[in-house]
Specification:
The complex is a heterodimer of chains A (402) and B (393).
Chain A: E1 9-13, H1 16-27, E2 31-36, E3 49-52, E4 55-58, H2 59-65, E5 69-72, H3 78-86, E6 90-94, H4 100-113, E7 118-123, H5 138-144, H6 165-188, E8 192-197, H7 198-203, H8 209-216, E9 226-227, E10 236-237, E11 239-241, E12 246-249, H9 258-273, H10 296-310, H11 315-325, E13 329-331, H12 335-340, H13 342-347, E14 350-355, E15 360-365, E16 370-371, H14 389-401
Chain B: E1 17-20, H1 26-35, E2 40-46, H2 70-74, E3 80-84, H3 92-101, E4 104-107, H4 113-116, H5 121-127, E5 132-137, H6 152-158, H7 179-202, E6 206-211, H8 212-216, H9 221-230, E7 246-251, E8 258-263, H10 266-276, H11 283-290, H12 295-305, E9 309-311, H13 315-319, H14 322-327, E10 330-335, E11 339-344, E12 348-350, H15 368-374, H16 380-389
Parallel strand pairs in B: 1-2, 1-4, 2-3, 4-5, 5-6
Antiparallel strand pairs in B: 7-8, 8-9, 10-11
Classes of the chains: A alpha/beta (402), B alpha/beta (393).
Chain lengths: 402, 393
């Protein structure tokens, strides 16, 4: 079976964010061709680096660029670039690879060569006005998007998520936006420019914060393990220490829904089996309509009892019971926890990558969706810089003379 | 009775028809992108079990109510709302014509719910052979945890995002929100639109199935690869960041005012020293120097000097943010019970086919009759009969 985007050609001029967009499109079956300078794009050497048979290479670059092709173009080789654009459907690029002047120059060449082309740009703030040139990094955008303010412990400064989440989200957003524009091009023959704002991508991770301000005049506050969930007025504990790690769990006061009520009832039943029947556990309807009006000291009292219980269990014990009894908790997974997750394993989420040239024999989180008629492509080695230059430029030239 | 929401004539998905059974956040955020780009999206809720986030705050006037949640509203712009008793044995009398009408059926229930209603992919395909179905669930449709209930905060813990947030010497600090609810819709949408493109080219429909946790764990792909090669696990790093020469979040004047500064080379650090009037030698020194500054003035000075810096915006700041407002990121929309609120628009912009948030979120069942008559071709007598049976409220 071929992928859903079989035959669709994508050109990628990228650092990290653009390569994530290309990753999504390649997984869905598009042919993704990276355009690189002779020495390879700088992202090949971005941290964290890992040792391979070819020397040190970027883990992020390998993870997001496997299964793509690579063409190297000499600086100023606009004729070959235009020829490639004539046979392409989508271009993706980002500001960490191209400065805006070069991006505009290349966009003009590309769109003149192919009016049906979808030209996709990932920018810190999107297009327009003076702000399109403001300097920014992923951390700066986590801050400006409003998410960083809400993360961390109250007695220390707020912290970023220790991953380039803005860049990766921006890449995923760009993939979906490029496909929406391609859908339009497929139906009408009209190409267009699509720009993605990473700041706005971060705003979208807040879920209800902008509404909480408008409706309640409430700016939420970071709280580490203990915070006000879902714009609540009271604090509840959400991170719990187990015998051997941590779980996430919001047993009380987390909003409505019968699942929360059943989850809490199952917890209380389990605690009773261990002889824990403190009256505070049943002193309120902790997840019912009155939850918003229970005093803070009662939330603290019930939490103190639950803390002691959870400490006596391992993370695996807690999750096994949770799945069996529908308790709404989850292990706070480390990288190894994600890699070993039994649910991912059972679903075939990880797929092997054999890269003989680099001496890599690993598993990648490759099957992020299951498409019944057009499955995602399996991982294949990432290209060396320029591996496909001759073949792809020849193909573009044939099309030109045909 | 006419449809209250304006049918779109522009937008990339004008003419696309969507039967939307999604609920909570991850599903509705995906179908919102269809609706805000011109698709006719009919959100179907069961009035006995309405969308759970209608029960999550913030509520207008701080009073809980089924049509009062801003949390719900933000994800439901441009959608029509109908409510049916989905557990009624005759529910398919209403739903079957909706499936015949639709190009896309989307759902985000715990696996098994759609099948219980006779609406699993095999049944949908019998009703409408070209249908494209999107199923987004927290853990995925199969595997040992498939039917375990959960929501996005569990998702971000399992996907590794929670563990990557906070200080290395402390327990992981929970990141705000529910990261799987905001990351997974981008992957779901890409797969769904790819399936639509495939159908346009071949005539073949299909089922797109996705686990929100698996989609979110795409963010850790590099760390998962590195772990297998080096045996070392990356974890939360507090204010450290590899590759930066100076990186941190620093205090400014006022209550809980912070600025993130991230110098990725020595030239930027020198420029920061110039702005601060003293060498930016380490984080403690910089924190002492930023403390008397107004955060926004310092950000402007850093921008002028080419130093990457951003105020740790609060929600209130976002509504006033010059850049977001210059984009028209927020869309003021009027709702009969909630009044006018600013909804979040898309993070992408199309040059020639602009997105448009056409209407506020529907009240529960607001468009039931309009959809029944205007889209499904039922008459007033049918509606009365369905009401007598208890299928409709």
């Amino acid at each position: 079976m071929t992928g859903a985007l079989y035959g669709i050609r994508v050109l990628e001029i990228s650092a990290l964010a653009g390569s994530v967009a290309g990753r999504v499109l390649a997984d869905l079956g598009a042919e993704v061709v990276k355009l690189e300078p002779e020495a390879g794009e700088p992202a090949r050497r971005a941290p964290p680096l890992i040792p391979t048979a070819e020397g040190e290479e970027s883990a992020a670059w390998l993870a997001y660029n496997h299964g793509k092709r690579s063409v190297t173009l000499a600086p100023g080789d606009d004729a070959d670039f235009a020829a490639l654009c004539r046979t392409a459907d989508i271009v993706v690029t980002d500001w960490e690879r191209l400065d805006l002047d070069e991006m505009d120059r290349l966009a003009a060449i590309a769109r003149q060569a192919n009016p049906a082309l979808v030209w996709t740009e990932i920018l810190p703030f999107g297009r327009g006005g003076p702000y399109e040139r403001y300097p920014a990094t992923d951390t700066v955008l986590q801050a400006l998007g409003g998410h960083l303010y809400l993360n961390g412990d109250v007695d220390r400064p707020p912290v970023r998520i220790s991953l380039p989440v803005g860049l990766v989200q921006g890449g995923a957003e760009a993939a979906s936006a490029a496909l929406m524009a391609y859908w339009h091009a497929l139906k009408t023959g009209e190409g267009q420019r699509v720009d993605v704002s990473v700041q706005a991508c971060i705003v979208w991770t807040l879920l209800n914060s902008t509404m909480a301000w408008q409706i309640l005049g409430l700016n939420e506050m970071r709280g580490g393990a203990i915070r006000k969930e879902r714009a609540n007025r009271f604090y509840t504990r959400l991170v719990w220490e187990t015998k051997d790690g941590y779980i996430f769990f919001g047993p009380v006061g987390g909003g409505g829904g019968s699942a929360r009520i059943k989850s809490y009832d199952a917890l209380v039943a389990w605690m009773a089996e261990d002889g824990i029947t403190d009256p505070i556990l049943t002193a309120h309807d902790w997840n019912g309509d009155g939850q918003f009006f229970i005093p803070q000291e009662d939330y603290d009292a019930v939490t103190a009892v639950i803390v002691e219980f959870i400490r006596t269990k391992t993370t695996d014990e807690l999750m096994a019971r949770a799945v069996d009894q529908r308790i709404l908790l989850a292990p706070i997974s480390s990288v190894a926890g994600v890699f070993d997750n039994p649910q991912f394993r059972a679903r075939g989420y990880f797929r092997p990558l054999h890269d003989d040239t680099r001496g890599l024999d690993v598993e990648l989180p490759a099957r992020w969706a299951n498409l019944s008629a057009t499955p995602l492509k399996a991982p294949a080695p990432a290209p060396r810089a320029g591996a496909d230059t001759a073949a792809i430029l020849d193909r573009a030239a044939e099309r030109r003379t045909a | 009775m006419s449809l209250d929401a304006t049918p779109a004539t522009t937008g990339v998905f004008a003419g696309l028809k969507v039967a939307d059974f999604t609920w909570a956040a991850a599903g509705p955020i995906a179908t919102k992108q269809l609706a805000d780009n011109g698709a006719t999206v009919v959100k179907v809720e069961s009035f006995k079990h309405p969308d759970s986030i209608r029960l999550g705050g913030p509520f207008i006037d701080d009073k809980p109510g089924i049509n009062r949640s801003g949390f719900f509203a933000d994800f439901h712009s441009s959608k029509l709302g109908m409510s049916v008793d989905m557990s009624h044995p005759d529910a398919l009398e209403i739903i079957r014509p909706l499936i015949e009408w639709a190009d896309v059926v989307a759902e985000s229930f715990r696996p098994g719910v759609m099948k219980k209603w006779g609406l699993d992919f095999d049944n949908l395909r019998r009703i409408n052979p070209r249908i494209v179905m999107l199923s987004s669930s927290l853990y995925g449709a199969d595997g040992p945890w498939a039917r375990h209930p959960g929501y996005g905060a569990q998702g971000q813990a399992l996907a590794g995002i929670h563990g990557m947030t906070g200080w290395p010497d402390r327990p992981p600090a929970m990141p705000k929100g529910a990261y799987s609810d905001s990351v997974s819709p981008r992957y779901a949408l890409s797969a769904l639109v790819a399936a639509l493109i495939h159908r346009e080219r071949t005539g073949e429909g299909q089922h797109v199935e996705l686990s929100q946790v698996e989609a979110t764990a795409q963010l850790l792909a590099p760390e998962i690869l590195a772990y297998q090669v080096t045996g070392e696990e990356m974890t939360r790093q507090g204010d450290a960041k590899a590759g930066s020469v100076l990186h941190g979040v620093f205090p400014c004047e006022g209550e809980e005012r912070w600025i993130a500064i991230d110098c990725v080379n020595e030239a930027q650090r020198d420029a920061l020293s110039g702005v601060l009037g003293s060498p930016a030698s380490d984080n403690d020194t910089v924190a002492a120097l930023t403390a008397p500054w107004d955060a926004f003035e310092l950000m402007a000075a850093c921008r002028a000097a080419g130093v990457p810096a951003g105020v740790a915006n609060k929600a209130s700041d976002l509504l006033d943010d010059d850049v977001l407002n210059a984009h028209g990121h927020f869309w003021p929309l009027d709702h009969p019970e909630m009044g006018r609120l600013n909804y979040n628009g898309p993070a992408y912009r199309f040059e020639k086919t602009p997105s448009e948030l056409r209407s506020a979120a529907p009240c529960l069942g607001e468009h039931t009759e309009a959809v029944m008559t205007g889209i499904l071709g039922f008459g007033e007598d049918d509606i009365a009969r369905f009401r007598d049976k208890g299928l409709l409220q």
